[in-house]
Amino acid sequence: MIPKYVIRKSIFYFLSFWFILFLDFLIPHLMPGNPVDAVIGSLSQTRSLSAQQIEAIKSSLGYTSGPIYLEFISYVKDVFAGNFGVSLQYFPQTAWSVISQSLSWTIILFGLALIISFLLGNSLGLRSAHKRGKPRDSIISVISMFLYSFPYFWLALLFLFFLAIQTHILPEAGAFSIGAQYLSVAYLISVVTHIILPLATLIIASYGTWYLGMRNNTIATLNEDYLKYAEIAGLKRTTIEAYSKKNAILPNLTGFAMSLGSIISGGILVEMVFSYPGLGFDIYNAVINEDFPVLELAFFLIIISVLVANYIMDLLYYRLDPRIRES
Amino acid sequence: MDISSAENSYLKIRTKREKINSYIKKLFENKYLLSGLSIVIGVVVFAIVGFFVHPYNPYSTFASNLPPSSSHFLGTNFFGNDIWSQYLVGILPTIEVSFIGAILALLVAVIMGMFGGYYKGMKNEVISFFINVFILIPGLPLAIVISSDLEASHANLGTLALVAVIVITGWAYGARTIRSQVMSIASRDYIRFIRNTGESDFRIIFSEIFPSLLSYIGYVFTNLFIIAILLENSLLFLGLGNETIISLGSILYFANTYSGILLGEWWWFIPPGLTIAIIGVGFGLISLGLDTIANPSLRVFKENRKKDKKMERIS
Predict the structure, then answer these.
(1) With an 8 Å Cβ cutoff, are A268 and B140 in contact?
(2) Which chain A residue shows the shortest CA-CA distance from B224?
(3) Minimal Cα–Cα distance from A183 to chain B, Å?
(4) Using one digit for the tens of pLDDT, what is the confidence trace for A214-243?
(5) Cβ–Cβ contact A307 with B under 8 A
């Protein structure tokens, strides 16, 4: 039999998917004026469009003739058929072909940032909780708070300015050296040097959520009777740390949604500042060129990956935490 | 009945005064809170003074791209505007937009959080669903989609649009924090008791639960303000928003777009970014301070809840 928790979560993510799909469809419709007419107006200034093409652009943005529920149905059909329309800035290309080229870079950058900020934030949070009230904890707490509330795009600008433009220690833009042959040693080295600055910015911008969550959870765990007893019984500090870690890290996994969100939000700006050819850079280009199909597709992909990642995380959480399985 | 209610109100006043006194004492003992508050007040005073007193009209033009000198403290930008004057004028609007956005987001968060936490069953499920969905949606991408649609429809809403975007993307975080807090308060004995006497839900929520939430609401507000100021300036930096209004974000946008950074003009983009960072840190310290005040009570609630469960199991 499927447990109740799993059913509840499955229903939640299923409904969320439809709600977000509806939201994605609704946002342009709620705007005062009509963004589609504006887009077609600016597009037809540079090239002549046939009536068929105008219709295709309209339907790709969720606008067809007829009542709004029919528009929504045709929008859903398009989404499930993988038909996200044509890019307006690279006109004959489809939105999907524009974005698919940059997905791999984003997956590498965001994935590494997610893993490293998870490890860094949790281990610092654990240490900090054990040294609660001592100067070291206060210093790390203040620094983390400082970085958590720091405008990360400005941090990226500082890195770019001081480490790349002024001193040329690291490259300024792109994801690899253009001259290097694909998959040669020089190419791989250039990939590493290009990723350092965006990655460092992203980690600094996003480890704070893990850190604060882990610190608070560990403090709560340390207040439990069994760990107080362990302390009184004179167990080694490392042993107590190991005991508290297990129980503190599980509730912290529920912070996954927030952390993933902050990496995605930060990543868009970081990719823009460092001209890193990923999804965020596509979004930036789509914004300045008013390329709505690309923008909507990027948003849709982000939402889907967030939903899937969180669903997996919730199921994993169920497997890992016996407290949930029993309740 | 008159006597008992008079007695009640007397007791309430006494305990309230004591509460307030100990609360104020706690506030002044709290180093994080004090330093955070002084930073924020300092910046706000600086912003107000700068908004009215600055050397040049921020729109008047001189020679472009001048380095800092005695007549132009931070040089001039690509258009020849005096950067120091622009910077002084720009701080207040930045704080204003974030402040209004954070207050409105807080309002939505408190209402949704209180009702979501108090009610059980279907009402709770529906409110929780919306809170959880909006927490899942990453803030900046949603804000970008909304604001670029607004830009394209040439609806020149400017500041209003920024505020709306802040509210839409920010409220869920606050609602979740408040909701979980209300849930733990609502399960306590005295609330159950009042409920059983037939008191209306609205009265319980607003006159019994709301007062014990105040430190949490302060905590949520500071965090919403941090979210708001980062979001506002990120959008302006991307060029989404009204760049004709001088603010820290629009100065950064122009510094980035007109290659102030590539040309090494640090005086163009360091002061505005640093100011945003200082405001953020000030609110961050306040949030850290409020967290240390609010958290001991959280532990008390948790213990009570556990005891409740134990009692239920025994009986």
Answers:
(1) yes
(2) A149
(3) 30
(4) 888 888 887 778 888 888 888 887 888 888
(5) yes
Which chain A residues are Cβ-neighbours of B240 within 8 angstroms? 287
Provide the 3-class DSSP secondary structure of residue A81.
coil
pLDDT for res B99:
93
What is chain A's mean pLDDT, rounded? 79
b/e sequence A197-212, b meaning 16+ C-beta within 10 Å: bbbbbbbbbbbbbbbb
> Which sign, positive or negative, has the C-alpha torsion A147, A153, A159, A161?
negative
Provide the token pair at B171. Answer: 């409220």
Residue from the list B132, B149, B276 with its beta carbon closest to the beta carbon of A28: B149
For the cut 70, the answer to whether the pLDDT of residue B3 exceeds it is no
pLDDT bracket for residue A128 (50, 70, 90)? confident
CA distance B127 to A118: 30
Residues on chain A touching B277 (C-beta within 8 angstroms):
149-151, 154
Q: Which residue of B has its CA nearest to A307?
A: B136
**How much is the pLDDT for B15?**
66
- Measured between CB atoms, does A242 come within 8 Å of chain B? no
Residues 203-222 of A with CB under 8 A from B: 216, 220
A213 neighbors A126 (Cβ within 8 angstroms): no
pLDDT band of residue B105 (cuts 50, 70, 90) is: very high
- Residue B35, Cα to own-chain centre: how many angstroms? 18
Inter-chain Cβ pairs, chain A and chain B, closer than 8 A: 159
* CB-CB contact of A258 with A209 (8 Å): yes
Q: Quick one: pLDDT at residue B298?
A: 35
Cβ <8 Å between B295 and A216? yes
* Residue B119: predicted pLDDT: 82
pTM beyond 0.90: no
Cβ pair B276:A151 closer than 8 A: yes
Q: Which amino acid is at A150?
A: F
Q: What is the DSSP letter of B210?
A: G
Closest CA to B67 of B56, B59, B77: B77
Residue A172: per-residue pLDDT: 73
Which residues of chain B have a CB within 8 Å of the CB of A284? 238
With beta carbons under 8 A apart, name residues in chain A contacting B151: 290
DSSP-based three-state secondary structure for B101: helix
Chain A touched by B238 (CB under 8 Å): yes
* Tens of pLDDT, residues B121-144: 788 888 888 888 888 888 888 888
Q: What is the pLDDT of residues B222-244, one digit of tens each?
A: 989 998 998 888 888 888 877 77
Kindly list the residues from chain B whose CB atom is less than 8 angstroms away from the CB atom of residue A164: none
Inspect the interface and report whether the beta carbons of A141 and B288 lie closer than 8 Å. Answer: yes
Q: Distance (Å, rounded) from C-alpha B83 to C-alpha B74?
A: 6
Q: Which residue has the higher pLDDT, B310 or B98?
A: B98
Q: Does the pLDDT value for residue B303 go beyond 50?
A: no
Listing DSSP states for B139-198 in one string gives HHHHHHHHHHHHHHTT---THHHHHHHHHHHHHHHHHHHHHHHHHHHHTSHHHHHHHHTT
Instruction: Assess whether pLDDT exceeds 80 at residue A191.
Output: no
Quick check: A63 contacting B, CB < 8 Å? no
